[in-house]
Amino acid sequence: MSNPFPRDGKTPGDLLGQTEEKWCPQKDFGKEEDERDAEREWQSKLLGEWEDEYQETFWQYEDEFSTEGPDPETFEDWANRIFQEYKKKCKKEEEQHHRRPKKETPKPSAKSWRLLEEERLLYEKRARAKEEELKEAKKRRYEEGCSQVFSSSSSQSLRYADIPWPCPSGTPEQMATVALHGVDPADQGAYRRFLRRQQALWHPDKFLQRCGTRLAEKDRRRILDTVTALSQAFNRLAEAAK
Which segments carry the region annotation Disordered (predicted)? Predict the structure, then answer.
């Protein structure tokens, strides 16, 4: 009858390594580091339990091992059997986990909805106030720039950036919108008077009379093209207001 301890100088640990390579290939059971750690811990416990069991009983029943009869289960067979049972258990638990109904995300209560709505309204109110402040600041800067540049007797050269554009980086339509901020179109009289002042301010011929000799030569064409486009934008608004 076979000795329950491995032969050919192999320890239970050696056979356990062979068993792990046979039944636990890296490509199947080593996808995640934590899974590999769990496998190594389980196999270590398995080896310890087997060694404890057979080291305690082997010498006590040595005579029984020397009698004729079927070979007892070797460590490799025993470990394989236990591991197969372990795999079945893990597979069963995984299937049960997938069959469990997923918990639905709890819906916000009426109080939560009310708080969210209040926060949204407050945010929109602050955003509108901030936008209004920005528009007012642009309009104020525009009017101050017009007073400094067009009313000045200075002979200082004017580059493109020195011209008091209502919105320096905007289109002619956007510039006109900035200039008209705070003017109510419903008040047709005041609205038309304001448009006439803007038409006179940005009329190409009148602009040249005021600033033509001061324009920097390298920016002259660009300045005049923008003045013409802005003047046309005000003309269209004035025509629409008739």
Answer: 1-42, 90-112
